[in-house]
Amino acid sequence: MKLRTGLFAAVAAVALAATSPVQAKTFKFAFQGDLSSLDPHSLNESFLLGTLGNVYEGLALYDPNMQIVPGLAESWKILTPTTWEFKLRKGVKFHGGQDFTADDVIFSWERAGRDGSDQKVRNSMIKSITKVDDHTIVMETPAPNPILVQDLPYLFIMDKEWSEEHGTTSSTSAAGDNAGNYANLHANGTGPFKIKSHEADIKSVLVRNENYWKDIPTNVSEVIFTPIKEAPTRVAALISGELDMVYPVPVQDWERLDNAKGVKALTGPEARTIFIGFDQGRDELLYSNIKGKNPFKDQRVRAAFVHAINLDAIKEKIMRGAATPTGLLAAPQVNGFVESLNSPYAYDPEKSKALLAEAGYPDGFEVTLDCPNNRYVNDEKICQAVTSMLAKVGVKVDLLAQPKSKYFGKVLATSGYDTSFYLLGWTPGSMDAENVLSSLIVCQNADAKKGMFNLGNYCNPKVDELTAAIGSETDQAKRNAMIAEAFKIVKDDVGYMPIHQQPLSWGVSDRVTVNQRADNGLDYRYVVINE
Amino acid sequence: MISFIFKRLVQSVIVMLTVALIAFSMFRFIGDPINNMVGQDTSQADRAALTEQLGLNDPFLVQFGRFALNAAEGNFGISYKYRQPVSSLILERLSATLELSLVAAILTLVVGIPLGVYTALKGKGLLSKGIMTLSLIGVSLPTFLIGILLILFFGVMLRWLPTFGRGDVVALGWWTTGFLTLSGIKSLILPSITLALFQMTLIMRLVRAEMLEVLRTDFIKFARARGLPDRSVHFKHALKNTLVPVITITGLQLGALIAFAIITESVFQWPGMGLLFIQAISDVDIPIMAAYLVLIAFFFVVINMIVDILYYAVDPRLRADSSV
């Protein structure tokens, strides 16, 4: 190995001597999926946004701990409950040399709201943007929104001139005829890295933007990203020294990485909570042997279920000790997290049996559990464990584990929430508890676009009231008190069965230092190649 | 001959239409593409609008008809995931798959045929027995496992060869080739062996069986009686007469090499059509899946046509028959 590196270094040095006196520092990594598009508004998905966050930037940025820091905006202040003033950073240039101004912000916000964009949700958080001068804007929100900036890191700013010149004033979409969209394969951001080449699903090469406005720790001059779908290949490529980092690494491979020389597994809790939901809306369950009534409408039955699950066993046996069992649907990284409510429901099979008997099901009943098998870390194994634990208290679970495309096609609103009992995971896009409440916990309401992922329709009017109030409360302390109150109600109702925060699982070579962000995002700003 | 080729081409259109029809009737069971195309915060209304725009609410015969009409004009639609025309995505990957399959096919023949002849002639030798035993392992191990084992041994332990990808490629127009760079050639070794191993053993065993059969026939005895040297008997007479079934199988297997490169491509992250297809299945990218399946059907038809033409070259009796 030593000889090989030495040889390569020598070859590289000879090759570079002719072109540049500075030694190129290349960082090579692989991810299981690929970068489907370079268009910053095309898909609201964490890998795409996390990767393009190195090329494009929003008015605010995430720091290594996912806290909001100023980005393209130097500062902001609330003028009235519904208006915000942003001072834009001066002297920032796009990769193509264009100046960054207020017009670009307004243009990008409008583009995010046009047809084909998947960032309409972020667009709709702002009602209007007024340009005061080239570097000052005023944003108006439809309702008081104390956490507006939480959503700004991923509302990426494009250059107006460049976009108009290349006819890419609306986002790339698979539908319609704007498939030849320039921004799908080209990029012009303000970020620390520029796209050098991009072949979808084959390879993307990025190079350092030497004129980046901010001082950042990285010493990387080139990043090469390859998608590698198969986990064993990914891990082999890391151990063989061809790559500096790969993710995700299967939990069962950690030991192998730790035993191999020069690489290690980097793990930590992800801000994604895995949980199981119950259909509490229908008067009769779709998939159960109990007819004429819905056992999950009875709080005692739900309580019996949560007390039957041994989360520590799931953590130890399935997640190799790396998961964090939870009692709450929001992770600690999420704004509004309540420490005191996070302790899981106690594992108590006797209590579980007693509760079932009390509710009129002394011999349990049958129900089908819907489960994805390629979406979350060891998702199917978790479902199998839950199935066998429930069997011990007399509940016969029929497990239906399917690939994510089939699973989501069945359980989501498009198929009318065709499930009785399901496993899901959630990371709030805004990293705020309000998103958890309004997506997972408030009553389903298609017109108000609320409760879309509340697949089992847990519904408590008091929680709805609180969520509405949280949405427009600008006093942080009061707001957090209301969030805690809402979560307390959900917990007492046993609205959900929280399982755990799943672990982040990266494989990293000793050659590099990286920052593992809780949303599984890899920020090249903090990638340092060690000497 | 020309009418023969023309007839075959007409057949190929029918085959492709049938494959497309079957494929389209299956797509409904793969899952919902929409959830892969939008983020979790995208509203129900936007999801429904996208479904409508893509025509996914239409009855499947309507969707199939639209696909067939567009495909007839060479338009295979836009990939749901990459938002690029499917034809250019497949074209970009065609060279990777064809180079891999070609190298695997050459390996198969160059190694398979001589070994087959050798084991037929020296059936009792120790080396022969060793080769036969090894070949059993070759047919019985799954491709995936062979690939992983090769990666572990040559990539991770010895570090001689790359574990994934195609290395540096050189673009010659739209065709990209890995033959012209050292890393490209090194990257080809493991995947092509993985892909060829099964076919190699198959061809070897086939040639061996055919040879043994032919060697027992009368005309070989007469050839020997005429005092022809062994080499001439074995290669000029015996081997040539085993070739008809070998060509048929090779032809079919070449199609299989291209079509079933999927597994090898995904183990080695080889950026070919198969990898694109397998990715498309998990993303329910219907336009890519449809175009790929039709293209593979086309390959099979063309390869079989070439095989049929080759028969004429190898077997004089067929030429005589056709003139009757």
Give the uncertain stretches of chain A in residue-range form.
1-21
CATH topology of the largest domain in chain A: Dipeptide-binding Protein, domain 3
Class from helix and strand fractions of chain B? mainly alpha
In DSSP terms (H or I, runs of 4 or more residues), the helix count of chain A works out at: 16
Strand neighbour order, sheet with most strands of chain B: 1-2
How large is the count of helical segments of chain B? 14
Range of strand content of chain A? 15-25%
Mean pLDDT across residues of chain A? 91
Shape of chain A: globular
Return residue spans of chain B where pLDDT drops below 50 for at least 5 consecutive residues: none
Q: Assess the beta-strand content of chain B as a share of residues.
A: under 5%
CATH architecture of the largest domain in chain B: Orthogonal Bundle
Number of strands of chain A: 19
CATH homologous superfamily designation of the largest domain in chain B = MetI-like
Q: Over all CA atoms, what is the radius of gyration of chain B?
A: 24 Å
CATH class descriptor of the largest domain in chain A: Alpha Beta
Essential attributes:
heterodimer; A: 531 residues; D-Maltodextrin-Binding Protein, domain 2; Dipeptide-binding Protein, domain 1; 3 domains; 9-stranded mixed beta sheet; 4-stranded antiparallel beta sheet; 16 helices; 19 strands; disordered N terminus; B: mainly alpha
What does this structure look like?
The complex is a heterodimer of chains A (531) and B (324). Chain A has 531 residues and is α+β, with helices and mostly antiparallel strands. Chain A has three domains: 1-16 and 24-31 and 192-262 and 510-531, Periplasmic binding protein-like II (D-Maltodextrin-Binding Protein, domain 2), CATH 3.40.190; 34-184, Dipeptide-binding Protein, Domain 1 (Dipeptide-binding Protein, domain 1), CATH 3.90.76.10; 270-502, Dipeptide-binding Protein, Domain 3 (Dipeptide-binding Protein, domain 3), CATH 3.10.105.10. Helices cover 29% and strands 22% of the residues of chain A. Chain A has 16 helices and 19 strands. Chain A has helices spanning 2-19, 46-52, 102-113, 120-123, 160-165, 182-185, 231-239, 254-259, 299-307, 311-318, 349-358, 379-391, 404-411, 433-441, 461-472, 476-493, and strands spanning 26-31, 60-62, 68-70, 73-80, 83-88, 128-133, 136-140, 193-199, 203-208, 222-227, 245-247, 263-278, 324-325, 366-372, 396-402, 421-426, 496-509, 512-513, 528-529. In chain A, the strands form five sheets. In chain A, strands 1, 8, 9, 10, 11, 12, 13, 16 and 17 form a nine-stranded mixed beta sheet that branches. Chain A has a four-stranded antiparallel beta sheet with strand order 4-5-7-6, covered by helices on one side. In chain A, helix 9 packs antiparallel against helix 11 and helix 14 packs antiparallel against helix 15 (461-472). Chain B folds into two domains: 2-72, no CATH class; 93-318, MetI-like fold. Chain B is built from 14 helices and two strands; from the N terminus they run αααααααββααααααα. Chain B has helices spanning 2-27, 34-37, 44-53, 60-72, 86-121, 126-140, 143-157, 182-215, 218-225, 230-259, 261-267, 273-283, 286-314, 316-323; strands at residues 170-172, 175-177. A two-stranded antiparallel ribbon of chain B has the order 1-2. In chain B, a hairpin with a 2-residue loop joins strand 1 (170-172) and strand 2 (175-177). In chain B, helix 12 (273-283) packs antiparallel against helix 13. Chain B is globular, with a radius of gyration of 24 Å. The interface between A and B is large, with 63 and 55 residues.
